[in-house]
Amino acid sequence: MSNTPVRAQGKGAARVTAPRNSAVGEQGSTESTEAAQPHKSVKGPQGARSESRLALVRRARRINRELAEVYPYAHPELDFENSFQLLVATVLSAQTTDLRVNQTTPALFAAYPTPEDMAAADPEALEQLIRPTGFFRAKAKSLLGLSAALRDRFGGEVPGRLEDLVTLPGVGRKTANVVLGNAFGVPGLTVDTHFGRLVRRWKWTAQEDPEKVEAEIAALFPKSEWTMLSHRIIFHGRRVCHARKPACGACPIAPLCPAYGEGETDPDKAKKLLKYEMGGQPGQRLRPPADYPGRPAAPLGAAE
């Protein structure tokens, strides 16, 4: 069966095209640290082959370029207007979907627009507002704590340094990198479950620990690419390369993927597995960017 990628074209539509020749040994400049290392076996749609460090770097960067063409509109899928809103939304996104967070935050930010307001919130009232996101008691405790820390230690402003952000309650490296990359323009890798799953499927790393994953992937790419690389990988993981049943037969980077065949390879069946705008469905944001080709999500409680 042929591998047919799907690329979003226009408002909520998708176009199917044949994958381009994706040979690993393409021409490209790399740093001296990317010199050939001991070979390792990589199995893709065309069978097993050995891959040097140089070939791995080239393949990884080729995948990034391919994903940039498929998802030129890749973006953080949380609605936010400032760094405080992004920080809060990212904390709320743990163990739930960005869609559910986006449906919850309008009322939350209307009630508590600033760190000072949220720090002074009644805990039970705050819990009820964020209840739809799950684990609302623990999340409310984090929001109260980080808001108080912003008020008392940072003058009511979200700091723009990772070492400061990770001192806030409920904020780890993943959350800090989301805020830095998307509110401050500081490059960072967002190693969430989608990111980790895909980079392991692509044999970019074998690490499971998020910090080790971050370090190994960072070594494959220029720092300037880190934030957008994260968005592209997460977009692909949510839309095509699912955890349980990846849509291999509709994947635009199938020729570059060592894990091709783990999912559905029949193009027609695979196409039915596509999600969000790739499958003609609403996205996760109620207020997506202007260049998003899909439909906005519906507010909480609204019929879709």
Describe what you observe in this structure.
It is an enzyme of class 4 (lyase). One of its GO terms (molecular function) is endonuclease activity. 41% of the residues lie in helices and 5% in strands. Helix 2 (83-92) packs across helix 3, helix 2 (83-92) packs antiparallel against helix 8 (173-183) and helix 5 (123-130) crosses helix 6. 43% of the residues are buried. By secondary structure, the protein is mainly α. It is built from 12 helices and 4 strands; from the N terminus they run ββββαααααααααααα.
Salient structural properties:
4 strands, globular, 12 helices, 304 residues, disordered N terminus, two-stranded antiparallel sheet, mainly alpha, two-stranded antiparallel ribbon, 41% helix
What's the SSE blueprint?
Blueprint: E1 6-8, E2 14-16, E3 40-44, E4 47-51, H1 53-70, H2 83-92, H3 98-111, H4 115-119, H5 123-130, H6 136-153, H7 162-165, H8 173-183, H9 193-201, H10 210-218, H11 226-239, H12 267-271
Antiparallel strand pairs: 1-2, 3-4
Helix pairs in contact: 2-3, 2-8, 5-6, 9-11
Enzyme class: lyase
Keywords: 4Fe-4S, DNA damage, DNA repair, DNA-binding, Endonuclease, Glycosidase, Hydrolase, Iron, Iron-sulfur, Lyase, Metal-binding, Nuclease
Protein name: Endonuclease III
